[in-house]
Amino acid sequence: MNKRFVLAMVIALFTLSSAVFASNRKAGHVILIGLDGWGSYSVEKADMPHVKKLMQEGAYTLKKRSVLPSSSAVNWASMFMGAGPELHGYTDWGSKTPELPSRVVTENNIFPTIFGLLRKADPKAEIGCLYEWDGIKYLVDTLSLNYYEQSPDYTKNPTALCDMACRYIKDKKPVLAAVCFDNPDHVGHQDGHNTEAYYAKLNELDAYIGKIIAAMKDAGIYDDSVIIVTSDHGGIDKGHGGKSMMEMETPFIIAGKNIRKSGLFEESMMQFDCASTIAALFGLQQPQVWIGRPMSQVFR
C-alpha cells in the first residue's frame, strides 16, 4: 500500500477523532477540588458560603459513598481510576503501589486514570495536580500530567496550596486540574470530627475555594468550566476507615457550564463514579475495566 495513502488515512482518522472529541465536550475545563476527610454529615452545619452557592447553582449529592476501607489512598485512587480496589489494586490508606495486581495497566505502568484518558484524547491539553498530602502523586499517573507539585508544609504554610492553584490556573488555564487539600482530615485526627475546630477549618477551606473560583474568572475560563468539590472519605471521633455513614458518605458538588441548576439529586453515587463523570464531561469513552457511571442526569 502506498505510504502516502497510509499517512493520509492516519491523519484523516486523527482529525476525525479529534473533531468527535471536541463536539462531545460539555466544557473546556474541569477543576476538581478535593477536601480530604470531609464528611457529608457536616455540610448543613458548616459555614461554607462559596460551596453552598455552588450547590444552589449546580447539582449535588450528600450520599456519595466511599469504597472500603474508608481511607485516603484507596479512595483517591478510586476517584481518579473509575474503579474500586478489587480492580485497581490500591487497598490501604497509604498505598503507593497496588497491593493487588491491577487488572489492567497502561503504557505508563499504572491502572487507567482520568488524567491518562484525557492525555490520549488530547495530547496538547494542560493537565495538572496540586496537593498537600504526598500520597496523591502515586495515584494520578504523573507521566500523563504537565505539572504536579506538593505544596510546602501546610501546618506552617496553610495558604500555600491555594496560592499555587490560583497561580497555575491563571498562568496555564488547565483543561483538567485536581487540587487536593489534606484538610479537614488533619484536624479530624487531631481535634476530632464534628468539633468546633473541624468546622472552623471547613470555613477556612471554603475561603480557599472562593479564591480558586476568582482565579478561574481572572483567567477567563470560568464561563467555559465545570467545578467539582468532593472528598475521599468522612470520619467519626478522631478516625476513619470503618463502615459508619459518617465515615463513608461524602459530598459531590458540581456546577458550571452545561450543568443543570437542579440542586439535590437522589441517584446513587460511588467514589469511582467521579472519574466517569469527568470523562463524560470531556466526551471520552471510558475503559472497559472501569465500573464507574457518569452522573449524566446533572448535564444539560
TrEMBL record:
Residues in the signal sequence: 1-22
One Pfam family from the record: Phosphodiest
CDD domains, per database record: ALP_like
Keyword vocabulary terms for this entry: Signal
Superkingdom: Bacteria
Entry-linked InterPro entries: Alkaline_phosphatase_core_sf, Phosphodiest/P_Trfase
Listed GO MF terms: hydrolase activity
Protein's recorded name: Putative AlkP superfamily pyrophosphatase or phosphodiesterase
